[in-house]
Write a structure and sequence with these properties.
Elements lengths: L1 E6 L8 H9 L3 E6 L2 H6 L6 E6 L7 H10 L4 E6 L6 H4 L7 E4 H16 L14 H16 L14 E5 L3 H14 L2 E5 L12 E8 L25 E5 L4 H9 L4 E4 L4 H16 L1
Parallel strand pairs: 1-2, 1-3, 3-4, 4-5, 6-7, 6-8, 8-9, 9-10
Length: 282
Amino acid sequence: MIRVLLIGDTSWPEFRPCIRLLAAADGVRLRRRASIVAAADAPSEHDLVLILQRYPGEHRAGDLDRLRRRLPLARYVVILGSWCEGEVRSGEPLPGVLRYYWHQWLSSAEEQLRLLRAGKNRAWSLPPTATDEDLVLAEVQTVTAARGRQAEKPDAGKDAPLLLVVSRDYAVFEWLRAAAGLWGITVRWHRCGAGLQPLPARTAGVVIDVERDGELPPRHLGRFQPENGGEAPPPIVLLMGFPRWHDVNRYLRAGATAVLSKPCALRDLERILVPQLRDDAA
């Protein structure tokens, strides 16, 4: 059981799906406090402290230090709203915490909590003095340990599950094609704006790189369906730069499986796509 202390304004629209995810997670006992000050005034033992931050400067570093003295063994994670996008450049981020934008948290929280319950989350076990480089290395070790010694798989040929990559940038396709060696799938590139042929029945996933506003109206997601009209449509993942809540909400309602921010972690994309791709390959 993970004891989670949730701090901040839970009514903020961007944070609502994050809270629903926490409430539905297995093995999580959730307690809420309105502010860091309130949490420090009435401390209790917790394994994880999640701080919701709507805008830069909402929480004071001094208050966090006081809470950390009360809960020295807890892990501290800040979930950031869209207004915090420039905080690292022009603001004063809270020290000694792991930072996730709200859309990053949605794509990775279940896996991070699962690893934490199993005692295998290396990144979340680092001390507050860890550098960004330490965090990157720890997350790579976590992914490597979870994957084990998985060897690169040869392309399974024309009958292999197909991942369609829709992008103006060929580099996005090359990046995903490199990952396909581990996933055991084939990858096809489709340039945005070009005519789209009906998708083969073996299409098991679609990744769409949205470079600018209005490039892909949500109603057009219906084009990315297999030609056989099977019962289960493939997962559709959109990659966007600094997605806003209204963008994410519109695409999810139109049928997208997930919207990830660019640059996204390959492991987050893998969590969404690979289970479906492996099911289709079975």
